[in-house]
Amino acid sequence: MPDIIFKGFMYLLSLAQSGDQHMTHVVTSTCVDHKYQECVVVCPVEAFREADTYLVIDPDECIDCGACIPECPVDAIFADTDVPDEEEYWIERNAVESVDAEIAEGDSPVLAD
Ligand code: SF4
């Protein structure tokens, strides 16, 4: 099993087993092919990670402050409890894809306006 899948699985398993109420924020599909950087700049804990065409949030780093939500020009960021039903698969994508991704520095190219 690839390491990234194993770590994502273990993360989800640990939440299920512990009943952990840890919350996080989540980047969803409207970030894809935009990758604006305003959210990264305001994050106090460097929780954003780089994917090729979008950003994700590392749930182990996010302190749930909400500062990034109003900064996103395409309304891509939600608290995990507020993610629209059709976007819920992004909760797992953020957790899994952030494991081995580079920390976002806020200087990636914006892909499209
Ligand atoms: S909610 Fe706060 S800590 Fe979490 S990603 Fe957004 S700015 Fe960073």
Describe the structure in brief.
With about 110 residues, this protein is of the alpha+beta class.
Average pLDDT, to the nearest integer? 89
From the N-terminal CA to the C-terminal CA, the straight-line distance is: 38 Å
Helix count? 3
Total tally of structural domains? 1
- Tertiary shape: globular
Spans of 5+ residues with little confidence (pLDDT < 50)?
A: none
Order of helices and strands: HEHEEEH
- The counted number of beta strands is 4
What does the radius of gyration come to?
A: 13 Å
The top-level CATH class is Alpha Beta
What is the CATH fold-level name?
A: Alpha-Beta Plaits
| Attached small molecules | iron/sulfur cluster
Report the structural category: alpha+beta
Proportion of residues in β-strands: 5-15%
> What order do the strands of the largest sheet run in, or round the barrel if closed?
1-4
Percent helix: 25-40%
| Biggest sheet record | 2 strands, antiparallel
Q: What is the CATH architecture annotation?
A: 2-Layer Sandwich
Considering the chains and any ligands shown, give keywords for the structure.
single chain; about 110 residues; alpha+beta; Alpha-Beta Plaits; two-stranded antiparallel sheet; 3 helices; 4 strands; about 25% helix; globular; binds iron/sulfur cluster
Give a structural overview.
This protein is an alpha+beta fold and 113 residues long. It has one domain (3-16, 23-97): Alpha-Beta Plaits (2-Layer Sandwich). Helices cover 27% and strands 11% of the residues. It contains three helices and four strands, in the order H-E-H-E-E-E-H. It has helices at 3-18, 38-42, 89-97; strands at 25-27, 48-50, 55-57, 77-79. The strands form two sheets. A two-stranded antiparallel ribbon has the order 1-4. Strands 2-3 form a two-stranded antiparallel sheet. Helix 1 (3-18) packs across helix 3. The longest helix has 16 residues, at 3-18. It is globular and about 35 Å long. The chain starts with a helix and ends in a 16-residue tail after the last helix. The relative contact order is 0.27.
